[in-house]
Amino acid sequence: MKLITRKNFLSIVCISFTFMVTGKLIFERLIGHTDRYYTENILLCLGFCIMIPAVLSVHYYLQRFPLLPVLIVQYLAVAAVTLGIVAAVDSATGTDTNAYRDMIVSVTIPYVAGAVLYYAAFFRQVKKANAVLAELSAELS
Amino acid sequence: MRFIKTKEEGLGENYLELHYNEVDNETREYIFRIEGSLATIEGTCDDMRVTVPVTDVLYFESVDRRTFAYTEDRTVEFREPLKDLLDRFGDTGFIRISKSAIVNVYKVDHLQGDLNMRVLIFLKNGEKLVMNRGYRKEFFAQLEKIRGKNKA
Fold first, then answer.
1. A64, A66, A136 member nearest B105 (Cβ)
2. I need a surface site. Which of A17, A22, A68, B69 has the fewest CB within 10 A?
């Protein structure tokens, strides 16, 4: 996996944003949906596209700490920022009554899915390495 | 290149003999790897100078700027830093697993992942080492490289 650094951060944000917005537009076109909150949702996509690479980029620098606490603290930080943004939007223009809950769900689902995929890839890598070690041992015996 | 193994009853010490007409790239590669495997390192153990075949070393560890090699039955101290040891023996199966340790993959029994994404390394003598997350990628890449070399 490519390391997210200051140099490539902006390009990663732009690429993610392009994919996300294109996916959103194609999906809406396919189901015939018209987004009443188009501008807000596009800005929200941009927020996600900045926040997720930001979280992933600091992950590398936290490698000396145990992973589980790091994941939990990162999740809490992301949730706090999300709630802060919703609160700001709420005070400026007003939001739906379920806005806080919906936003937390929107953050939690990709975060948990990402963590599960990350763990699955890790344990698969360990399993593969064990197969290589068994192969090397068989060659020696 | 052909590989012939011959069992000789009553032989005092096992030996390898290479027959060649010309040292081509393949032969050079084998010589390099065999020489690396047959290399020895000199250090001190209980205030005595000792020589240890590098293939006997389970892992190297650096503690308080001193370097130790651990074998099945003894601990040998060296003056050489880990980086130099890795340069010398990296091609013979030694891979870095943390800032302060290098393990001999041929002495690794199996790996186990934990929830903190650290990899626990169980050695064939029952010892357990911990690989830091930062060295995982390099370890797996090196392991694949060793497998590739052995298959070639």
1. A136
2. A22
Top CATH class, B25-151: mainly beta
pTM, two decimals, is: 0.68
Which residues of A have a CB under 8 Å from any CB of B?
63-64, 66-68, 119, 122-123, 125-126, 128-130, 132-137, 139-140
Chain B residues with a Cβ under 8 Å from any Cβ in chain A: 105-106, 108-113, 115-119, 132-134, 136, 139-140, 143-144, 146-147, 150
CA dist A122 to A128, B3, B77, B113, Å?
Answer: 10, 38, 35, 8
- Which among A64, A66, A126 is the nearest to B113, CB-wise? A126
Residues B101/B129, Cβ–Cβ less than 8 Å? yes
Domain limits, chain B: 25-151
CB contact under 8 A, B143 and A64: no
d(CA A68, CA B49): 46
Q: What angle do CA B93, B95, B99 make, to 5 degrees?
A: 155
Amino acid at A112: V
What residues of A are in contact with residue B117 (Cβ under 8 Å)? 67, 119, 122
Over the stretch B27-65, which tens digit does the pLDDT of each residue have?
887 777 777 667 788 888 888 888 888 888 999 999 988
Q: Determine whether the interchain pair A67/B109 forms a contact, defined as Cβ–Cβ distance below 8 Å.
A: no
Which tens digit of pLDDT belongs to each residue from B111-143?
Answer: 998 877 789 999 999 999 999 878 888 899 988
Q: What are phi and psi of B57, to 5 degrees?
A: -75, 130
State whether A126 and B111 contact (CB < 8 Å): yes
- Alpha carbon separation from B84 to B14, B78, B88, B94, B96 (Å, rounded): 29, 11, 6, 12, 12
Per-domain residue ranges of chain A: 6-140
